[in-house]
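Reopening: structure tokens for the adenosine-5'-triphosphate complex, inputs below.
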Amino acid sequence: MSQSPSPAGGDVLLSVRNLSKRFHTASGPVKAVEDVSFDVGRGRIVGIVGESGSGKTTAGRCILRLVEPSEGEAVFDGVDLFKLPERALRAYRRRMQIIFQDPYSSLNPRMRVGDIIGEAIDTHGLAKGAARQARIADLLTRVGLSPEHARRYPHEFSGGQRQRIGIARALAVEPELIVADEPVSALDVSVQAQVLNLIQELQKELGLTMLFISHDLTVVEYLCDDIVVLYLGRILEQGPSREVYANPRHPYTKALLSTAPIPDPTVRRERVILQGDIPSPLDPPSGCVFRTRCPFAIEACARAVPPHESVSPGHSVACIRQAELATPATQKVTA
Amino acid sequence: MAAVLSAPSPLTATLPEDVVLRAEDLHTHFIVGERAAKSVDGVTLTVRRGETLAVVGESGSGKSVTSLSIMRLLAHPGRIVAGKILYRMRDGTVVDLATLPEKRMRAIRGKEIAMIFQEPMTSLNPLYTVGDQIMEMIRLHEPLSRHEARRRARQMLELVEIPAAEKRLDQYPHEMSGGMRQRVMIALALSCNPALLIADEPTTALDVTIQAQILDLMRRLQRDIGMSILFITHNLGVVAEIAHEVAVMYAGRVVEQAPVEALFARPRHPYTKGLLACIPNPERDRAADGARLMLNPIPGNVPSVLNLPPGCTYAPRCPLVEPHCEGEAPGLVPAGPGHLSRCFRHELL
Amino acid sequence: ATPPTLAQERGGVINVAMIGELASLDPTVATGDLLGTVTQHFFETLFTFDKEWNVTPLLAEKLPEVSADGRVYTITLRKGVTFHDGSAMTAKDVVASLHRWLELAARGKLVQPNLAGLEAVDDHTVRLSLKEPFAPLAALLAFNNSAAIILPAGKMDNPLKEYVGTGPYMLKERKADQYIQLVRFDGYQAREGDPNGFGGARKQYLDEIRFVPVPDANTRVEGAIAGQYDYADLLPVEAYDRLNGQDKTEPLLLKSFGWPMFIMNNKQGMMTKLEMRKAVQAALNADDMLAAAFGKPEFYTVDGALYPEGYPWRTDAGTEAYNLGDPEKAKELVKAAGYDGKQPIRILTSRQYEFHYKMAQVAAEYLKAAGLAIELQVVDWATLVQRRADPALWDIFITHSPFLPDPALIAPLPATYPGWWDNPEKEKLLVALNAELDQNKRVALFTDLQKLLYDQAPLYKVGDFSALSAKSPKLKGYEASPWPYFWNAYLEK
Amino acid sequence: MTRYILQRLLGMLAVMFTVVTIVFIIVRIAPGDPAAVMLGPDATPADIAALRARLGLDQPLVVQYLFFLGQLIKGDLGQSIFLDMPVTRALAERAEPTFFLTLFSILIASAIALPVGILSAYKRGTLFDQAVTTFAMFAASIPSFWLGLVLIQVFAVRLGWFPVAGYGGPDASFLTRLSHLVLPAVALGVVSSALITRFTRASMLDVLNDDYVRTARSKGMGEFRVVMRHAFKNALIPVLTVIGLTAALLVSGAVVTETVFSLPGVGNLVVSAVLRRDYPVIQGALLVIAAIYVLINFGIDMLYILIDPRVRY
Amino acid sequence: MAAVSITPAPRLTTLMLQRKTLAIGLAVILAIALFALLAPLIAPYAPNKLSIVNRLKPPSGTYFFGTDEFGRDIFSRTIYAGRLSLTVGAAATVFACVIGITLGLAAGFFRRADAVIARIIDAMMAFPDILLAIALVAALGPSLTTVIVALGIVYAPRLARIVRASTLVIRELPYVEAARALGVPTWRIMTRHVLRNLVSPILVQATFIFAYAMLAEASLSFLGVGVSPEIPTWGTMIASGRQYVGQADWMTIFPGVAIILSVLSLQLVGDGLRDLLDPRLRKDL
Ligand SMILES: Nc1ncnc2c1ncn2[C@@H]1O[C@H](COP(=O)(O)OP(=O)(O)OP(=O)(O)O)[C@@H](O)[C@H]1O
Ligand SMILES: Nc1ncnc2c1ncn2[C@@H]1O[C@H](COP(=O)(O)OP(=O)(O)OP(=O)(O)O)[C@@H](O)[C@H]1O
Ligand SMILES: [Mg+2]
Ligand SMILES: [Mg+2]
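Re-run output (same inputs, fresh job):
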């Protein structure tokens, strides 16, 4: 039984408990997400990091009920979303939104930008006629586009601009929670910075709560208040991001942080280069899922799934050896 | 139009001894109908013997087209329209790859210059075993028997640290993970002992932990074998880790080339400087109280290669822009020891 | 007119393109020229026809001896005739075969009610006695479809399991839609003397005769031109010019081959009304139909009489109603019949005989002009034969007939024939015609019959037509005939 | 691999089963009493009742269906009305010309389509490519019966190189029989080569843009080898599917072509059966031809095992 | 990846005209359709007007395409036949589209329906088109309507298969997911997001089906198992001209050319549209 710590700040908007999702495929069940629990404080940005296939997207989609979770609960503002019937869920759809990675496929190529944003407004009957137009114009301005853009089609925009349209669509229903699934990964660095700034501004201005999915550790460190590290569908470590970055406790987190390239040739770090590849989620290792690549794995690791242990307020780690291995990972050496 | 091929001797004279490859004012265009996509629009870069030159740039800046121009593997409407690609062969003669007859080019590919690509999942033919694909390369360039070629292939797999190499030879690409395939690609590329390895974003598609493995491997191989590497990436972090020298591309041109430390310490082109400022940096981007500060993005978008602005292509986004930047294109000029910059105002930086 | 013996070569195989496939190979049970054409090579009858269409003996030794009252027929059989299975033909076989014919054959059924007795007098003599005199009996027995074929007594199941006949050729193999292969029967005993039409000596020069079903007329033409078929039956007359001057084939024109007719359904539906039938008679334009069907005038004659010039039966009685092409008159008649103009008049026709189909198309236009709603039902011949048996399925169907030696043989005259012309006056005439032995009186009776036919319009005779076939120039000794036969024929090397 | 085979096998059986069901339905949608239709107008009510009972037509539909399945499993396709023989025999007797006709057409089509398709993809955008594309589209627009008529006129009638029609007599040697197939096979082959050409071209275009082709070039390999060894083999997989599909489609072409050339094959049989309202034959032919299609596809799926290691896994 | 963009409506017409083959194809098929539409005005003779004296006249100033064995004007008949041939093709295509789109969408959206529909599609595709059409016509009884219905049924699975496959892809695309996240009802997702993006592949496929249906109709009519032979379609015209090959070739040549022209132009249009609308293939140009 994993014990998830509450985020600093106390006011929890979303509380995910023991979320599991298995996909049934031709070659057997894929354990995409296994027993994941974490809290998202109101107004905070929670980063979910992990390598490809670790279950980040699946977790996000489960929370929004875009795929049906296999187990667990997601308590949003006091209500378990997973238990809601489809009808009741629609009211909650307004309060939670999603932004996607791919700026190309996330907008319907056959719809004008105004209609894309308008659909969100219409679905929930938020405004009509002139008020609707005004609202679309306002949203476009807010994400840094101009109201005239409403008449254009998505293909007439660059990747960054499209991402802005996607954000405007999400904002159109005035959600409280936004799941952002790698919203900047597909963008060029120069544009990525523009979008990151926009996200931040909006978050501050509107008091948004965000689940920010990314595999870019630098971005997560910069943007997120809390961080959840996923590996093969399981949380290995979570906590306030400054704490986790400064003091990673799981061998995987350490490896991840130590191998993330830093754009500074003068920084020389002690690297933990992991051996081998991520195992298949069709057949994950017993016990600790990370043990097959862990430099510190011992026999006991194979036996049971390690429980989450709290190492500091809000910071927990699922590693039976975390205490003996506690050393800082990043050392700066001036060349 | 393509430059006229000169006799080898004058070419040899133009290339310093320590330089393996030098592209000079290379122009590669894709001609579709009446419009020309000027994907490479005056690239000049230099790869030194035994060193790694990282070419960095945003998507669409012409990195891949540059590398494919060097290999002369451009896809259909693409053509080298001007410029030289001087290459020093292992026997010392210098050739211009831009105009070399296809037949001679074939002898260079794989043997002198080898290449690995971004997508490890698709760069290997799914229908042949990896052993076959490596042996095919070896036997193309060297008169070895099947047996000998197979031995060499196995050695190559061992070189790139693939466990159970003998068994892996008989496996098909789909039976391997992405990281493993990229190792196979490297083994394949190195199997004829090339003098220059061109790697087009070899780690972009990989996870961070796998990327680290591959970068580590490449660095070590380069040190041990002593080949030169032209390493293409859009990740400045990767550049910092692997490069000796860096060339920054923007809209089909190299805007800056410098040794890696010099470039990161003091970029001499506003674009490079802008790029570095874009990347989140916890130390820089946090106020003393831990509150986040805003990033400094480069305003605007990368121009389309179909419609490049006149003059300096970066001018529309440049904070240092002057009226004359928009009229006249700056040349690549020295801006410090071993440092070249394509900016009229590099001294201001 | 036998060609010099030297030129007659024994051996060789010919391919005969016929107009379609046969549903059955039993010429007793079924009718049809195609069936008769094929089966006459291996099944024989007691009598047959000579060149002048006179009845002449075949398996019988000579023509029957008829008693003075015309009621008793004594038939002497030829000796030494063997079946294909090697057994000898005896009176027992003949009696059994004739019984089979009387029961199963449409023509036999005409005689059956009239039969008083049938028995073998000795091994080679058969006696058949009738209740009433019946003039056309010998002709009926000579016919090759709905035919009184002689089978071995033990081998006459229905349907036939084996095809054992006495003919000069025997059935070797049949592949449906592909070929019917006949080979020479070495035990055949030909009659003495010279060939004479279907009668006289039947010579066996050819080793094999293959009947190939080629339903498409054009393919028959092309195949003939290309030399693939040594004989191609019933070709569209338009092909005449193409066939002329070819080196692998030559056209063969059989003048006054027969007469196409539109048979109306006298039993069920709209056509049972006399006015409707008269309307059709009035509406149709025989000139156009014949021209469309047969092209050039040399291939047809616009003639309403049931027999062409030269036949003793020729008469013009009633033919003023022929070939009117008068839509106005037709319209009046249609109106008089109380026809609503909507109920479709179904014309059943086939494309196997392309001229049927063409006449149907022209007729359809004329009938439409007369205010009839026409529905053309185009099926293959076999289906047509099946369907016409059901009075519920059609109103008019198209067929044709050769000019037959005796009017009693004209198929649509008896009331049993699909069309079911069942009229007491006609029956009386027909019975009289059949019973009358005096030729002059018979002609008079027939004249009345023809007049009645035009008054009642149970069918519409379109005209006379010539048939076009093609044969290889190397195929010699072949005599043109409505039912082509290939004994006596030989290939010139 | 066993898994793959098993999967395909199950899929094939499922499709087969649906095919049977569809045929069952098609025969039932025929208006009127199937027994009456089957027996034709000559049948007496007693005959019809007997056949109804024999075919179980007096039973509820479900029972009829099960009966139909039962007969099929026994290999009984019923009795032809016109031909007076079991449908299975009627089909078997006509299988040879159809089989060879299909085979030759496929060979002709492939022999034209593969090289032309490859070359045209390789030289895409050139005049040659445009000519090929246009020609392929043109060929696909010619009704095969029309082409058949033209071929007969030119090569059989005018030039006399080939027989006009039929499939030779009883003693026709195999070669003679084959000579009857040349023109129909050309007529069908040319028309179907269009489809294969276009598909080969499209497939090659896809593959030629693939990364591993670039890898092969980067090895310094000659173009011919690159194209044949690295591109064509990979392009072959979808092309094979189309060839298989075409083979099955050819049966449909054969229906028309066999009629034009009076070939005594299955296609001709079907057309005659329709004209003669010989429903058991139509039903049987439908079943058998669909089954062959399904089998061909299964065969091609199995061929993939040889070509594509990914499915072997 | 960059080529995902799909051309919106306004530029389409201009783009269509820029493509030579597409423009030619479009022009030809429209011209044929126009001729058919205006047949009563254009045709110099009534299509069924017999004129036995003028039978089998070669093409001339009076009879542009010559006459047939009944002296009917081939030119007039070819034009009138175009009406029927085009109508049969178009009606069959529409019918196929209605069934195919409905089935395909249902299969793509509802898992449970998919199991059945996908199976049926596969099984239907196992029947060669002409053969299935023949069987259906034989079962339903031959008439113009049954030919249309039969061809519609024959080609519906092809469309259903494409619609199903594309639906399965599109329904997983982020923009559909975004709509679901917004709470947009399923039927609106089906029409607004899925069907609307399927317009191009459906249009392309429908063009080809139109072409194939016309060919199939011609084949059926030629075999005599389709449209009744006295109704002039190009197929029936060739069938009746068949026995005059070598003698009155114009009877087969002109309707044959009409078929080839229509089918070819439809294919050109389909091909051109695909180039234009299918972004995946567009990169080849
Ligand atoms: N619809 C699905 N059906 C089957 N398996 C799935 C499905 N969606 C995801 N998976 C599997 O679930 C696992 C987790 O996938 P997920 O997309 O959540 O990973 P991710 O962390 O978002 O990866 P990435 O960084 O590549 O986006 C993967 O192994 C994936 O293959
Ligand atoms: N085959 C082609 N046809 C037309 N334009 C092309 C083609 N290949 C590349 N280009 C254009 O050339 C430009 C440079 O492309 P290139 O692939 O070199 O960029 P890159 O720097 O490698 O980008 P990335 O980081 O996305 O790989 C792009 O604008 C691209 O659209
Ligand atoms: Mg993801
Ligand atoms: Mg690139």
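Residues 16 and 113 of chain E are 38 Å apart (CA to CA). The pocket of magnesium ion (ligand 3) is lined by residues A 56-57, 181 (CB under 6 Å). Marking as resolved unless the reporter disagrees.
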